[in-house]
Specification:
This protein has 153 residues and is of the alpha/beta class. It has six helices and five strands. The longest helix has 16 residues.
Amino acid sequence: MATKRIGIAADHGGFELKEYLKSKLHENGFEVVDFGNKQLKEDDDYPDYVVPMARAIASDELYRGIAVCGSGVGASVAVNKLKGIRACLINDTFSAHQGVEDDNMNIICLGGRVLGHLLAWEIVKTFLIARFTDAERHRRRLAKVAELEKMCE
């Protein structure tokens, strides 16, 4: 896998999985920007970590991002509030590549209390090597999503 700057962020529910994925990313030549939490803290809140990461992706400072909370749902809800973010909770490799190929997904959300390490790593690898197909039908659909973002400004 080519070297790319990848953001990663998690609250207490995803901390352990985040640390594992961060080490695997480093081992595979990725530059990882850790938005926290940097230590296990049981009363932290996922928006404090995943939103700054999503902002960095929306402003093209990072290639893609990985947001982890207990279920992955809260992280997904939070980051999708930002313009330019296309994130989804992913639990399988098919959705990991299809979400990028068809929908240009730029953040993957994972459940630290849902996924085991090996499956999570397979999903992340699949997400990171996938490429947007740039097919006309996909560009057309993404343009409609961009229009929805404008309605919310």
